[in-house]
Amino acid sequence: MNISTNEIEGFYEPLQSVSASDNIRLGGNYQLAAISTQQHILLLYVNGAQRFQDQWETGMIKAILKPTGLVNIFNVTWFDAEHKPLKDGVKAVILSNHIISIYFDKEGVTLKWAQTGNKKEFDTPFHYSMYRDILYNTTLIPSFFISSL
């Protein structure tokens, strides 16, 4: 089994979702896996889609977190249930207790995930090496992102 040295990497379970509007419909209770590249943190879909679930496969990119220059605060590109990117007003904060919070200012939505299990081990059936291999599988990565890897 491969071991990650980045404590952010691992699996995340949904912790909380808060919406300021009854008109916002969440796409699911997403379980995610986080991996880091040299320039980004990728949140990969594991399971939990409720809307358009037939269009989501394990390993597809759900969000790209780009550092802002402020510690543990990121600009986010979030891919909604229909794979449309949301960027404007989307920020993430990674807390020291391994909770990822994503804030959608325009939509008035906050989503939170908590890291599960051993922070450094990717266990079967979703091995760490599989997620590293996904980075080079261009069918799962949006085309605009490939050039920046």
Work out the number of β strands: 9
Counted by DSSP, the helix tally is: 2
N- to C-terminal distance: 25 Å
Question: Which regions contain 5 or more consecutive residues with pLDDT less than 50?
Answer: 118-128, 138-149
Give helix and strand order, one letter per element, not per position.
Answer: EEEEEEEEEHH
**What is the molecular shape?**
globular
Using only CA atoms, what is the Rg? 14 Å
Please list the strands of the largest sheet in the order they lie side by side. Answer: 1-2-3-4-5-7-8-9
Main sheet, how many strands, which sense, barrel? 8 strands, antiparallel, barrel
Strand content: 35-45%
Describe the SSE topology.
Blueprint: E1 10-19, E2 28-36, E3 41-49, E4 61-67, E5 73-79, E6 85-86, E7 90-94, E8 99-104, E9 109-116, H1 128-134, H2 143-146
Antiparallel strand pairs: 1-2, 1-9, 2-3, 3-4, 4-5, 5-6, 5-7, 7-8, 8-9
Account of the 3D structure:
The protein has helices at residues 128-134, 143-146, and strands at 10-19, 28-36, 41-49, 61-67, 73-79, 85-86, 90-94, 99-104, 109-116. The protein is mainly β and 149 residues long. It contains two helices and nine strands; from the N terminus they run βββββββββαα. Strands 1-2-3-4-5-7-8-9 form an eight-stranded antiparallel barrel.
Kindly list the characteristics that best describe this protein.
149 residues; mainly beta; 9 strands; 7% helix; 42% strand; globular; disordered C terminus
Write a brief caption for the model.
This protein is mainly beta. The protein has helices at 128-134, 143-146, and strands at residues 10-19, 28-36, 41-49, 61-67, 73-79, 85-86, 90-94, 99-104, 109-116.
